[in-house]
Amino acid sequence: MKNIALLILFSPILCPVIYGQMPIDWTGYQRKSGISVTQTGNKLEINWPTEAREKAQMILNLESGQPLFYSLQVSQRGVLKEIASDLDPAFVLTIGKRDLISQNGWNIFFDKTNKRPHQSYVIGLDKQKASVQSMGSRTVIRVGDARAATFHGVVEITVYKGSPLFNVAAVMSTEVDSTAILYDAGLTTKKNVWNTIAWSDTEDKMQQTIANLTQSAKAQAVKYRTIIGQNKAGSLAVFPAPHQYFYPLDEAFNLNFTWHGRNYRELLPEFGIGIRQDLMGDNRWVPWVNAPPKTQQRLNFFCLLSADEPTQTLEVVKKFTHGDSYKPLPGYKTMSSHFHNEFVMSVMLAGKPVPQTPNFVNVFKQSGVDIVHLAEFHYTAHPKGPDSLRLLELKTLHEMCKRWSSKDFLLLPGEEPNEFFGGHWLSFFPKPVNWIMARKPDMPFVTEDPTFGKVYRIADKQDMLKLLEAENGLAWTAHARTKGSTGYPDKYKDEDFYKSDHFFGAAWKNIPSDLSEPRLSRRVLDLMDDMANWGYKKHVIAEADLFTVEPENEMYAHLNVNYLQLDQLPDYNQGWQSVLDAMRQGQFFVSTGEVLLPSFTVSGKKAGETIKLPKDSKATIVLEVDWTFPLTFAEIISGDGKQVFRERIDLTHTEPFGKQKFTFNTHLKDRKWVRVEVWDAAVNGAFTQQVWIDK
């Protein structure tokens, strides 16, 4: 295009074209958006306000063969400083094969994509066309064409009004079925852009190294998923979406999720900094990321410009995840569930030294988790006896939980029994309960043991329901419709135990991963709606489903949390019935941490409660939202017992770090339930439980 003169006379969607100048589609751009975009030759200049009367500037070079980021600047006390120049976005796309046959299609987890043939490609950008689009508080610049093997698309750059934050994405699709992918990404350069590269190590201490253009690339373990380039003018931080980027694993090991240096993976010859995924994962089940045909996969990363040192820059990045912890909310306590750290069997009953406070307890406390529901004895103990072993294991579990519970932290016993009902499920009782997962025909359901007290013996699903009723416990489907629960709870939705109030519902985790989705784990969100349409008041709780919990792990990326409506934590010694009551009544919301929902009502009724609609079926939804990344949309989801209805509300006008009470008026004619989800620009989100509708 560089050597061809173009004359376009009649196209209203293109700017005036001069010799060698790339045509740009401006039809989606709004000059009143507050973000200025101007073109001079093949340079595109974007200026946007950040905070406190400061601004950021990005100049893109659309000339073929030149680095895309001509200049990146941010102001300090009104004076622009050039943080970087002559940078190119770089993407390595690894393409493998998804197993869609042996289990449950795209919802598969037990896949070992890394063991099958796969190949990595550099995504090439051929600058042939561009567009500018205003979307509320953000502006999106798209440059095409981008290609790698069977994938094609564009490079997309999004700047956010109100912050020196921007997102860089290769938005790519393929026509090939059964495809699974991973991607590494970052910024590369041929010039001495950086003086040093900095990061926080896994012990939360800042580290740095000289930025040497001849230094071979290195995968770097970091805390907060962030790598920072620094020079005299300031810093540029590169980091991924905190949850969406990480495909599901059973472990939260820190697998060196950033990189810096030249010739990364022998595919990117220039010096760079960026984010990465380990192709081998935790060497167990490694399902990678779904890429169904024709879906727009957003291979993206975030950048933050700063005129400060890396330490101060990282502090700003950390604000987006509240320092990788769950923000306290008045009237709520945070709860996380489903952890197989197996401390009882691997340490306490293995004769190993027991520390004053185990690492896993410290990790949860530092993450802002108030209540931890364990899933111990996952194929490591003696659930069916003999009595002497099973009862000792339970006694040790209960003593462990009591020992490390306090007025500010509850460690609560739980198991993943996987007996009697079908599929995998979790148990949760409001106090210590002794039960054995076997009963011979001549043995009673409950006995008194002189050492351990009351002991239940369970023979079948009827016994299990009797135990839940007797001890006021809860059960729910773990990792529903995937892993060991493929086909469940659908297969037992007509069973008496499922219909019982003691069968709570299901649990939510981001399985599978799909970078084209605007929300996480549609698998369980769809199930949530299905269960409501089945006619039972079931709920969905967040689960982590992780094994080891250590300080060096990348815990936050794999965590999620439930905000239970509790004014205070119960005393462990008095039991924790209030925790189960809040769950059973739907008095909670689920969050990845960045989007919070402090209040939610439908015509004055809270989640878990029932409303009666007026004759015109109008309802007013009042929702208070607290967020870090700018929001993208809210969705009102309702059902009539057969169909699911969705009403999406655009929230792209929001800027980073806000708090607002929204009022939505909607019609709910013939509906039986309604709930709300909210999602942000990094695909973090939160969702309420249902408000039920009485005719």
Automatic annotation (TrEMBL):
It comes from the Bacteria. This is Uncharacterized protein. The lineage of its organism: Bacteria, Pseudomonadati, Bacteroidota, Cytophagia, Cytophagales.
